[in-house]
Amino acid sequence: MQSQMYHGYRVWGHAILQQEDILLPERCAASGTITMGGKLVEASGVLGHFDSEEDAQRAGLVWARAWVDAHG
Asked: At 66, is the secondary structure helix, strand, or coil?
């Protein structure tokens, strides 16, 4: 999980480990969360699946910053 401050909000990028079949490589589902003052403002659903935790977290952060830009 990665977080950063963005225009007064705390934005989070999450990577949720997914493994549907033991014979397939592990993948990570991405999601994003926005908080302010420790309270939830908005959360995404699954944004997509990625081959690495870093890519999934980055996708969550990109979504969260875009949400703030559109609603903040």
From this structure: helix
Tell me which H or E stretch contains 32: strand 27-36
pLDDT at 23 (0 to 100) = 67
- For residues 14 and 32, what is the distance between their CA atoms, to the nearest angstrom? 6
Number of domains the chain contains? 1
Record the pTM.
0.90
| DSSP element (H, E) containing 69 | helix 53-71
The ranges of the chain with pLDDT < 50 are: none
Range of the domain at 15: 2-71
The one-letter amino acid code at 14 reads: H
